[in-house]
Design brief:
Elements lengths: L1 E6 L3 H18 L3 E6 L2 H6 L6 E5 L7 H11 L4 E6 L6 H4 L5 E4 L4 H26 L1 E5 L4 E5 L3 E7 L2 E6 L2 E5 L3 H8 L4 E5 L2 E4 L3 E5 L2 E4 L4 E3 L5 H17 L2
Parallel strand pairs: 1-2, 1-3, 3-4, 4-5
Antiparallel strand pairs: 6-7, 8-9, 8-12, 9-10, 11-12, 13-14, 14-15
């Protein structure tokens, strides 16, 4: 579930935003919990934590800038989207690292675009966090072995078996490259060679068609896979830049 708050002292704005977001939820089949506040004070005293906050800058009482600064003291990850009637933004407004700044009057297509972008960012961050705690079971013969995704450097096909090279040591698995790709498709893994599956997050460098892993092992990139590998890396790096 994605927890969203709208904080604006103009009731007409909160009603418009609510209608747009709830319609978006229905059309995209998302799972939202939506809460509306009409002052910064009310938002700050709420005991809920939010994934996304649409926050008016100019409100009576505690304004949006001060509200955002106080929110950031306890929550570094919430995505703040400012709503403002003024094109110019102060240095204070920029200091909270908001996801976006939207000018009023609000436009349906702009809100939808922002929801698309911020949800993609939240999903990407969740995948990164999941990789640190997520475990996957692999076939190790008579038994299975459970590995943390974040611990895996790479897999190598050796003599019809798979060698898993991890931060905790090496393990022999009774898997195939295809079965690994299926198990790992939601995480940041790439197959640069028919005998290797690599964890992109544990790559150190890429030089002359060779990948240098964080443990300094060298992984070859097959010539026929080089263009796809470079495309995947560009997309990965672009997402990293967008989410920082």
């Amino acid at each position: 579930m994605i927890n969203i708050a709208i904080c604006d002292d103009e009731h007409v704005i909160t009603e418009q935003m609510q209608e747009i977001i709830m319609n978006y939820q229905k059309v995209r089949q998302e799972d939202f919990q939506l809460t509306i506040y009409h002052s910064g004070e009310k938002l700050l005293t709420a005991r809920e934590s939010y994934d996304i906050i649409f926050l008016d800058i100019y409100m009576a009482g505690i304004d949006g800038i001060e509200t955002a600064k106080r929110l950031r003291r306890n929550d570094k990850t919430v995505e703040i989207i400012y709503l403002t009637s003024y094109a110019g933004l102060t240095r204070e407004a920029l200091s909270v690292h908001a996801f976006e700044y939207l000018e009023k009057p609000i436009k349906r297509e702009v809100i939808i675009k922002q929801l698309d972008e911020v949800l993609e960012r939240i999903l990407h961050k969740k995948l990164i966090e999941d990789s640190k705690t997520k475990t996957i079971d692999f076939n190790a013969g008579k038994n299975s072995i459970r590995l943390f995704v974040d611990d895996i450097y790479y897999f190598e096909r050796v003599d019809r078996k798979i060698k898993a090279v991890t931060k905790k040591g090496n393990f022999i698995l009774y898997e195939t490259i295809a079965s690994l790709e299926e198990k790992l498709h939601t995480f940041d893994f790439v197959t640069p060679h028919q005998s290797f599956v690599v964890n992109i997050n544990n790559m150190k460098d890429y030089v002359k068609d060779e990948i240098v892993m964080m443990n300094y092992d060298i992984i070859p990139v097959a010539q026929k896979r080089a263009s796809d590998f470079k495309r995947i890396m560009r997309e990965f790096l672009q997402k990293q830049l967008e989410n920082n």
